[in-house]
């Protein structure tokens, strides 16, 4: 049985996950911003860096980032 996570803990996990996946893909925040623009997002490398450092962002940003990185089949356990 897993312990319940707080909202802040979920945000930190999601931010760590995205940072790790960006590193694996050898992508910069600027690369991600360019890809997200193709999905209708107005992100910049600075706005992405800010969101990931805070660990607070909307689910739409998280899903948009996953789509922009062309990630499929993400399991909750991986986040």
- Report the principal-axis shape: globular
Cα-to-Cα separation, first versus last residue? 17 Å
Low-confidence segments: none
- What's the alpha carbon Rg, rounded to whole Å? 12 Å
Please report the total strand number as a whole number. 0
Please outline the major beta sheet: none
Oligomeric state of this protein: single chain
Total count of helical runs of at least 4 residues = 4
What percent strand?
under 5%
Write the layout of secondary structure elements.
Layout: H1 7-24, H2 29-37, H3 45-54, H4 59-68
Helix pairs in contact: 1-3, 2-3
Can you summarize this structure?
By secondary structure, the protein is mainly alpha-helical. Helix content is 59%, strand content 0%.
Written description of the protein model:
The structure is a single chain. This protein has helices at 7-24, 29-37, 45-54, 59-68. The protein has 4 helices and no strands. It starts with 6 loop residues before the first helix and ends in an 11-residue tail after the last helix. Helix content is 59%, strand content 0%. The longest helix is centred in the first third of the chain and has 18 residues, at 7-24. The chain is mainly alpha-helical. The model has no long low-confidence stretch (mean pLDDT 90). The protein is globular, with a radius of gyration of 12 Å. The chain has one domain (7-69). 15% of the residues are buried. α1 crosses α3 (45-54) and α2 (29-37) crosses α3.
């Amino acid at each position: 049985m897993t312990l319940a996570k707080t909202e802040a803990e979920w945000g930190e996990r999601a931010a760590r996950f995205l940072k790790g996946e960006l590193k694996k893909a050898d992508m910069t925040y600027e690369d991600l911003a360019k890809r997200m623009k193709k999905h209708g997002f107005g992100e910049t490398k600075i706005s992405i860096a800010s969101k990931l450092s805070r660990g607070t962002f909307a689910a739409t940003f998280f899903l948009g980032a996953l789509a922009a990185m062309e990630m499929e089949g993400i399991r909750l356990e991986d986040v």
